[in-house]
Design goal:
Strand order of the largest sheet: 1-2-3
Helix content: 55-70%
Distance between the termini: 33 Å
Structural class: mainly alpha
Oligomer: single chain
Number of strands: 3
Mean pLDDT: 85
Radius of gyration: 17 Å
Largest sheet: 3 strands, antiparallel
């Protein structure tokens, strides 16, 4: 079964640090924090201030400026693992590469991709009720039906269509690059057992995943999350 430990370092490494760029839609929900004499910080290590604040009670940390600016590893881990990976029950997925694709998609789009994924699964003859808790089981059926590589390739194309539909020309190239790099990394998991993957990753983690435009996407993702949790 899939293991978050196999992708956490790659995700964290490529998310970058503090961001305050006003061209990102996340700037509409900037933190009140002052750092190096500057304000307007809205994202740290891929986590928006609004997400950081709203998850604080659920995961038991203080939504303080000190925690946001420094983003301790244990807080980032709770948000990424418990808030996104576990939301989709990805531990139950048969392939780490496919799990990584779905995690990345969820991290960037929240619940915004569910309808497109459901339509895709239906076209493959796989029934899914649209619930987060049952997504992994539906994807496992697909993997059993057509194999790991075909599933990875299909999800790549479906994701591209999903991101393109957002219609943000300034960001689309970065989003497509990130999807393609995620796909290349997903290929490295084909046919591997979890124990083998974790051993390989402990020795050397050097694959590049492009994160351009992820901050802008996460704004849309969080809007979807809030709508579904009112």
């Amino acid at each position: 079964m899939a293991n978050f430990e196999n992708i956490k370092e790659l995700t964290l490494k490529k998310e970058g640090g503090l961001a305050r760029t006003t061209t990102d839609t996340a700037s509409q929900n900037a933190s009140p924090c002052v750092h190096n004499g500057l304000t307007g910080w809205h994202t740290n290590k891929g986590v928006q201030w609004i997400v950081f604040k709203d998850f604080s009670k659920k995961f038991g940390y203080e939504a303080s400026c000190d925690n946001f600016i420094n983003m301790p590893y244990n807080i980032w881990y709770k948000i990424a693992k418990n808030g996104y990976w576990d939301e989709l029950n990805l531990d139950n997925l048969k392939n780490d590469g496919v799990a990584f694709q779905l995690f990345s998609w969820h991290w960037g789009r929240g619940y915004g991709f569910y309808t497109r994924l459901k339509n895709y699964l239906s076209s493959k003859g796989v029934s899914w009720d649209g619930k987060s808790s049952t997504m992994a089981n539906a994807i496992n059926q697909l993997i059993d039906k057509q194999g790991e590589k075909q599933t990875i390739d299909d999800l790549t194309e479906v994701q591209k269509k999903d991101y393109t539909a957002i219609s943000q020309p300034a960001n689309i190239r970065g989003w497509i690059n990130r999807i393609e790099d995620t796909t290349k990394y997903a290929y490295t998991f084909i046919g591997k057992k979890v124990s083998q993957i974790y051993s390989d990753n402990k020795k050397k983690i050097n694959y590049t995943i492009i994160g351009v435009g992820l901050i802008a996407l996460s704004f849309f993702a969080w809007k979807q999350y809030k709508k579904l949790n009112k």
